[in-house]
Write a structure and sequence with these properties.
Radius of gyration: 18 Å
Pfam families: TetR_N (PF00440)
Structural class: mainly alpha
InterPro entries: Homeodomain-like_sf (IPR009057), HTH-type_TetR-like_transc_reg (IPR050109), HTH_TetR (IPR001647)
Helix content: over 70%
Keywords: DNA-binding, Transcription, Transcription regulation
Number of domains: 2
DNA-binding region: 19-38
Shape: elongated
Number of strands: 0
Number of helices: 9
Protein name: TetR family transcriptional regulator
Distance between the termini: 52 Å
Mean pLDDT: 90
Length: 180
Amino acid sequence: MRAILEAAEQVFAQDAGASMEQVAEAAGLTRITVHRRFANRQALLEALAVSAKQQLIDAIKEARPDAAPALVALHRVTANVLRVKNTWRFTLSHANAHTPAAAALWDEINTHTVDLMNRAQREGLLAPHADLEWTRQVYYALLSEAINRPGAEQDPAAQDPDALATLVIDTLLHGAGPRG
């Protein structure tokens, strides 16, 4: 199953309209084997969505955000999420099936993010009056922009998750204005 999902991610990233047969070939399997697991292309896209979102949740939990000050936790979570987003670029950047399972995982991701934003606010990283829903949306946008930076594919150093996490957090907390 994992080989099929990884192959699908790669194939769809190159050609969003690729066939199940192309996915099977990339996975080193027959089309029949892929169809045993996934009845059709839509089922495969749904499985990709669930798998990628579950990996985001695992990355957040692996960062152990409750075991460190908010700034450290935010950096760990951001770097881990960027690693996952880099691996699952197609799936996480395209509108795909929103099954109840995928929606529930997305709700869990949002809950983890808002919890971390609440801690950041309590610890003084975010202004007391900051709109945390807006801050969450801006954070997600910064994550996407960090992954999709122009020229990043040609410069491996520009894709370093820790460096990108620092850039995302610095921009989130300080914006682009002058420092006092």
